[in-house]
Amino acid sequence: MKKLLKTLPLLALLVILNSCSSVRVAADYDKNASFSEYKTFAFFKTGIDKAEISDLDKRRILRAIEAELLAKGFTKSENPDLLISLFTKSQQRVDVYNNHWGYGAWGWGGYYGPGWGPGWGWGWDRPNVSTSTQGTLYIDFIDAKKKELIWQGMGTGYLSRNMEQKEERIKEFVNKIMEKYPPGMQQ
What we know:
By secondary structure, the chain is α/β, with parallel strands linked by helices. It has helices spanning 2-21, 45-49, 55-71, 163-178, and strands at residues 24-29, 40-43, 75-76, 82-97, 105-112, 115-121, 128-143, 148-158. It is built from 4 helices and 8 strands, in the order H-E-E-H-H-E-E-E-E-E-E-H. Helix 3 (55-71) packs across helix 4 (163-178). It is elongated.
């Protein structure tokens, strides 16, 4: 029983860490668009300026998108076929774990034997509160000539506040989203 009680919090932590590392993605697109005709791109500054994130994170996202598009054979251009825009949403999540169980508490006033006194026993834990930020990144591909949205990719997952991990997390978001482009070409 003691071994189970010791491993249960570790197991819960591993489940939480695994769920935090994944990015859930989805994409929507115009079925009438001819995706094979799009060869060049540029960033849509007006749309990107509206994204409510830091300029540092915007640059990280744009660099990651550019790297993915170049790897797919696109060329950056002053007269593009596609305009790329983005926007973001985030929400704070607060989890309160209030399981009210514990063991091995030391204290006074416990009953042990013929009188009251110190002892070990079961006790009440304080609630454990954790906060995390879940973010959603939208990447929009707009037909430059028609000024119409032709593809939108979305990725949702937990964000890191750790500066060293932030760039890798942004690359992961963008990579997972861009796996959905062009439509019908996923492996």
